[in-house]
Design a protein that fits this description.
- With 450 residues, the protein is an alpha+beta fold.
- The protein has 12 helices and 8 strands.
- It has a 4-stranded antiparallel β-sheet with strand order 4-1-8-7. The protein has a 4-stranded antiparallel β-sheet with strand order 3-2-5-6.
- The longest helix has 52 residues.
């Protein structure tokens, strides 16, 4: 009788351990296959797509079309119909019905859970000696191929174009990815102990400490590496507050969801680009062009004394680029090319900002290109709305934070100018004028006042 305890998993001297490992591996395999790997995703389509559609359609027909039950029962069923709780039994508005049948949002939180929990459970199979180990990993590989195809269908066909996430949620999910990676490190330590290559004479508590230390060390290494190289907490979330115009919102979006009419969207996008070919439209005249102000022109000329942010190379040079953005319009921007190995780059780059509105301020940011992580910001400067309106041409000192390193940027901003309209008036003649002079005929002339 060989006693049973955790110590049997730290060596290869017990047949009991091998038997228990086989049973545990088989149980985990049947837990994951097919339920966790495949069935859950398929049931999501059924329970979040087919069942709500059939159920809500049946309720709508029973309550508002067939009216086959007494009103007291219909009032009870109406509670279960989405967006109908405060309505009467006479009418279900189109907009309410549309909201009631709309699909679910993209479930990013559930996707994150699947991508962390499932690999963690599968990687725990690395602790066991069993033929179910390779079968589990083979099924995990097949399941993620299936999951990729499933997500493409679910996100593009089943879900609406809406999701809720924040930079904090994304960052924490990436940090938690260190858990399945650390399980691999712990399994490596266990097999080092079981093979006798690692601490063969250590006690059971010491071996358990080594396994726990391998797990925690791997997790800490992942967190510090991800934190140091990518610096994720500096990423900002989209600001949904405040009022904005159509052009301002459009400048921040890849697509415009203000209207779902394809013809209307194409007309808005291309109508003014090729108006002469638009059916029934008159060609633009010179007066029409004169009424349209020229876009804001921004010239990023040069910079000097830019500090280096390469903390591990310490070579004294940097690879700078400069980005000019309109405040609160991050996609309306002018960006220079990257100038390699220079603390005093000469860009001489000019760009236009068609989304500029009177009063907008400009933010100039100089970045040091980095291959292993996000580009570091080595200096900023903000040009106020009044300065932009008046035009600017000169050198400014960048705000480098607490580094105390003075850096300078030379810029030129040409505000949009609306040319004055020159109106030509042709006075051709007059008829039916009365004679104002009682002796001779009148000598008329015409004056036009604005």
């Amino acid at each position: 009788d060989e006693g049973f305890g955790i110590e049997i998993f730290l060596s290869m001297k017990s047949l009991v351990a091998i038997s228990v490992e086989g049973d545990l591996a088989e149980s985990i395999y049947h837990l994951m296959m097919p339920g966790t790997f495949f069935v859950g995703y398929l049931m999501c389509i059924v329970m979040a797509g087919i069942v709500p559609f059939v159920w809500n359609s049946l309720l709508v027909k029973i309550i508002y079309i067939w009216r086959c039950l007494p009103d007291c029962f219909l009032d009870v069923l109406k509670v279960f119909l989405p967006w109908a709780g405060d309505l009467t039994l006479e009418h279900y508005p189109y907009r309410r019905a549309e909201r009631g049948f709309e699909p679910m949002e993209i479930g990013i939180s559930w996707d994150y859970t699947s991508m962390i929990v499932t690999p963690t459970v599968c990687f725990c199979m690395l602790f066991f000696v069993s033929p179910y180990v390779w079968q589990t990993f083979a099924m995990m590989f097949a399941s993620y191929i299936f999951y990729f195809c499933f997500c493409r269908y679910q996100h593009f066909r089943l879900c609406k174009t809406c999701y809720y996430t924040t930079n904090r949620l994304d960052t924490m999910a990436n940090f938690l990815w260190g858990i399945p990676l650390s399980v691999i490190a712990a399994a490596w330590c266990v097999w080092g102990l079981r093979s006798g290559h690692l601490a063969p004479d250590a006690s059971v508590p010491a071996k358990l400490g080594l396994v726990g230390g391998a797990f925690l060390s791997s997790l800490l290494l992942w967190v510090l590496t991800y934190w140091r190289l990518l610096d994720p907490w500096t990423q900002r979330d989209a600001n949904e507050g405040g009022n904005a115009t159509f052009d301002e919102v459009k400048a921040d979006l890849l697509y415009s969801w203000f209207n779902c009419n394809p013809v209307f969207m194409l007309k808005c996008e291309f109508y003014w680009q090729d108006i002469s070919r638009h059916v029934g439209a008159c060609p633009r005249s010179s007066e029409d062009d004169a009424r349209t102000p020229a876009p804001l022109k921004v010239s990023i000329v040069s910079a000097r004394n830019i500090r280096s942010s390469d903390w591990f190379l310490a070579m004294g040079t940097t690879d700078p680029r400069c980005v000019c953005e309109i405040k609160n319009k991050p996609l309306a921007r002018v960006e220079t090319a990257t100038h390699s190995n220079s603390n005093s780059p000469m860009w001489d780059h000019t760009g236009e900002m068609p989304h500029y509105s009177d009063g907008d301020s400009l933010t100039f940011s100089v970045y040091d290109k980095d291959i292993l992580r996000h580009d570091d910001c080595v200096g900023k400067f903000t040009l106020t709305g009044d300065q932009v309106r008046a035009g600017f041409d000169g050198e400014v000192q960048l705000d480098a934070g607490q580094r105390g390193h003075p850096s300078y940027l030379r810029i030129k901003v040409q505000p949009p100018q609306v040319p004055l309209l020159q109106t030509t008036i042709h006075i051709t003649g007059a008829t039916g004028l009365r004679d104002n002079d009682w002796i001779t005929r009148s000598d008329p002339y015409c004056v036009c006042h604005v």
